[in-house]
TrEMBL record:
It comes from the Bacteria. Belongs to the bacilliredoxin family. It comes from Fontibacillus panacisegetis. InterPro entries: BrxB/BrxA. This is Putative bacilliredoxin, YphP/YqiW family. Pfam families: Disulph_isomer.
């Protein structure tokens, strides 16, 4: 019995998706879903650009999980998966200007406008605790 490459990849990355969706973060898997949610989200919205890379597993996703334990959190929680849901990720990145594409990365938006952004290079050399502290500081500033 052989498995298609696409099925293999779906099976391999599902735990990476689940790590965020189990926190109540909604996946946006198509450009239409991104367009429906991001520009019209009232209040604050966290958008995690998920990735298969080691820094996503080692620091980014755990950092997001720790940050969401904070008393003050965004009104909306979304994620797109770079390299998997390519069109949705490209559409989400249109809202992250002037930042170049990077994954993993984390955006905080307020009323459809980007107010805080953590790029890949700010994930790679930091611990989950440092990323969580960065996020909770942004939550305290923008999620009131």
């Amino acid at each position: 019995m052989s498995m298609s490459f696409d099925q293999y990849m779906r099976d391999m990355i599902q735990p990476m998706r689940d790590e965020l969706t189990s926190l109540g973060i909604q996946e946006l898997r198509t450009p239409e879903e991104v367009e429906e949610k991001l520009p019209t989200a009232k209040g604050t919205a966290l958008v995690v650009v998920n990735s298969v890379c080691g820094c996503a597993a080692g620091q980014c996703r755990p950092g997001v999980a720790k940050a969401l334990q904070h008393d003050l959190t965004p009104d909306h929680l979304y994620t797109v998966f770079a390299g998997q849901d390519k069109e949705a990720t490209a559409k989400a990145r249109e809202y992250f200007a002037p930042y170049p594409p990077s994954s993993p990365s984390i955006a905080l938006m307020k009323d459809g406008e980007l107010v805080h952004f953590i790029e890949r290079h700010q994930v790679e050399d930091r611990s989950a605790e440092e990323i969580a502290a960065d996020l909770t500081s942004a939550f305290d500033r923008f999620c009131r």
